[in-house]
């Protein structure tokens, strides 16, 4: 017979008080900070299938720069911060009673949800799941995904029954890569569970580490939907100002001047135009749209916003080409420097970066394009996008320079020197002296 809900919750509550083991599955931008915080109060296994990543963490190295591992003792037993140890061995997961899944949820080439990492993680956990265990998902999904897609996989590979033998929770991640102020514990956390009792337990678990507090959603679907619309709302708002930028470019006025004037009204939302990439904003709206379409509703606003934002890289490239032509430059064989390839400033994250769209469009004009980014990992960029990064800023004349990312290092470059050699300078972030640029978003 399966455990009753009451006895299971009582057992789990007792185990949590005794500092039972929590396994965090996936040690990227989301999982690592989570594992470290839980490791301060519980026994935690930080698990990742990437053995290289695990080895780096065991050595105190974090390539994402999201966690400060400096000064944390790394013993020969691979234990960090007393309660946390890193592992790539599935057998180590058998000792855990709570599993938190933080694997990526990308989109495929057709902009449809790619649940492969999520379902693979669920399959792996199904093989180690025991009666009374809880699986909590943090990966961004569409409403219903946890119970409709993940739970059947857990049941199939564990032989256990959902909400009788094991339980689930959902607590959407809210990590903002590169942000050293709004960190994990400083951001309010939405929580949920597959039963009222489990929801309370999940809420209490996160509440033990989140200083900003928690919000317990009434269901897993509500928690899933809350995450999806957070990013869809921001995406739509940015798409509006991006569309304004396209309009104002044709009118011949500066978008930032218009936004500055409009921003003098107290209730004006001060969004700025730009490239919209990254692991969330450029992806999550497609998850929401996918769910809507599966139910027979074809979203208009969400997808129209995505179309505008997805085309901004192409717009930038074509605008730069027009500016070059205006200066009498030959386009074929011209040399262009792109400054930055990460999806945001002062952050090494290159996931879903739209700078690549600028590069690809310029190459269509048979332009020679160099990319320099002191923050990005050259090997990762090569693997993900087949692009080579310059190891250092070269002493070379360029026909155009595009400031694609507002890294601190780029704010004080010698742009007058570039202009002295006839370069067109385009600023996608409106981050440098406007008297030095030929165009900006």
Structure description:
With 441 residues, this protein is an alpha/beta fold. It has helices at residues 5-17, 31-39, 51-58, 116-126, 145-158, 196-207, 220-251, 255-262, 284-294, 301-310, 312-326, 355-364, 378-385, 415-420; strands at 21-25, 43-47, 79-80, 84-87, 96-101, 134-137, 167-170, 189-191, 214-216, 335-339, 368-372, 400-403, 424-427, 439-440. It has a seven-stranded mixed sheet with strand order 3-4-2-1-5-6-7, sandwiched between helices. The chain has a five-stranded parallel sheet with strand order 11-10-12-13-14. A two-stranded parallel ribbon has the order 8-9. Strand 5 (96-101), helix 4 and strand 6 (134-137) form a beta-alpha-beta unit. It starts with a helix and ends with a strand.
**Biggest beta sheet attributes:** 7 strands, mixed
Gap from first CA to last CA? 64 Å
Query: Helical stretch count?
Result: 14
Percent helix, as a range, is 25-40%
Uncertain residue segments: 1-5, 14-18, 70-81
Taking all Cα atoms into account, the compactness measure Rg is 24 Å
In spatial order, strands of the major sheet run 3-4-2-1-5-6-7
* Beta strand %: 5-15%
Instruction: Characterize the overall form.
Output: elongated
């Amino acid at each position: 017979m399966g455990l009753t809900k009451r006895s299971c919750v009582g057992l789990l509550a007792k185990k949590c008080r005794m500092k039972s083991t929590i396994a965090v599955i996936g040690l990227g931008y989301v999982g690592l900070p989570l594992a470290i915080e839980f490791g301060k109060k519980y026994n935690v296994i930080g698990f990742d299938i990437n053995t290289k990543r695990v080895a780096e963490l065991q050595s105190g190295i974090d390539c994402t720069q999201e966690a400060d591992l400096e000064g944390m003792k790394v013993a020969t037993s691979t234990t960090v911060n007393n309660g946390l140890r890193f592992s790539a061995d599935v057998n180590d997961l058998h000792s855990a009673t709570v599993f938190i899944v933080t694997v990526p949820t990308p989109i495929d080439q057709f902009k449809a949800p790619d649940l492969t990492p999520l379902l693979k993680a669920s399959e792996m956990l199904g093989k180690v799941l025991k009666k009374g265990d809880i699986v909590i998902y943090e990966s961004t999904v569409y409403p219903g995904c946890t119970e409709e897609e993940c739970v059947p996989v857990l049941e199939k590979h564990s032989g256990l029954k959902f909400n009788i033998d094991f339980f689930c929770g959902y607590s959407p991640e809210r990590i903002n890569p590169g942000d050293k102020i709004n960190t994990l514990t400083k951001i309010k956390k939405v929580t949920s569970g597959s039963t009222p009792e489990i929801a309370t337990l999940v809420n209490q678990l996160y509440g033990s580490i989140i200083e900003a507090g928690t919000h317990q959603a009434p269901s897993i679907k509500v928690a899933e939907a809350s995450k999806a619309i957070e990013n869809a709302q921001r995406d739509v708002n940015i798409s509006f100002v991006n569309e304004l930028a396209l309009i104002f470019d044709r009118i011949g006025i500066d978008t930032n001047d218009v936004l500055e004037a409009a921003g003098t009204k107290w209730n004006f939302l001060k969004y700025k135009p730009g490239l919209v990439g990254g692991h969330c904003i450029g992806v999550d709206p497609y998850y929401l749209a996918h769910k809507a379409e599966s139910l027979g509703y074809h979203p208009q606003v969400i997808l129209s916003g995505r179309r505008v934002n997805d085309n901004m890289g192409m717009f930038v490239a074509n605008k730069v080409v027009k500016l070059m032509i205006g200066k009498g430059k030959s386009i074929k064989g011209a040399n262009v420097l792109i400054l930055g390839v990460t999806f945001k400033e002062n952050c090494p994250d290159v996931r879903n970066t739209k700078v690549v769209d600028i590069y690809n469009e310029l190459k269509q004009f048979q332009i020679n394009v160099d990319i320099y980014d002191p923050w990005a990992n050259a090997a990762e960029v090569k693997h993900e996008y087949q692009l080579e990064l310059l190891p250092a800023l070269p002493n070379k004349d360029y026909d155009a320079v595009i400031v694609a990312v507002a890294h601190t290092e780029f704010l004080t470059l010698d742009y007058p020197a570039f202009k002295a050699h006839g370069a067109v300078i385009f600023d996608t972030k409106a981050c440098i002296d406007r008297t030095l640029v030929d165009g900006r978003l």
